[in-house]
Request: fold
Amino acid sequence: MNIVIDTNVLISALKSNRGAAYKLLMLLPENKYKPCISVPLFIEYESVAKKQGLLSGLSADQIDTILDYFLSQSRIQSVFYLWRPFLKDPKDDLVLEVAVASASQYIVTFNKKDFKGCDKFNLKVVTPQEYMSLQGIL
Reply:
């Protein structure tokens, strides 16, 4: 199953090992889903993860190692079309573009309201906990 993980979910997983976002990322080796990304979305992940003080418990090298692993488990999707602007935040458009281009079923985010209208692309916008519940993982 193809999904696109919003930056806020990835950062949440890196900040704490207690939440649904962390549990979702820990499922990567089990191949229960395939995260889809694009080069611009990966750059967004890296840029946010390396903001000074955001992930104070991780060094830049550790962040690189985690992101490299995430990348190795992901499907890199080329995006040949743009709808910008469709959503209020251009960074959310990055997520939407990958989701549509990869025929993903879900966008996993903590900010569902930011993706209002994505249902017209046959996408479900869910939180990590909702996703895992829908998949029978929790």
Remarks:
- The two ends are 17 Å apart (CA to CA).
- The chain has one domain: 2-134.
- Residues 53 and 59 are 10 Å apart (CA to CA).
- The chain is about 45% helix and 10% strand.
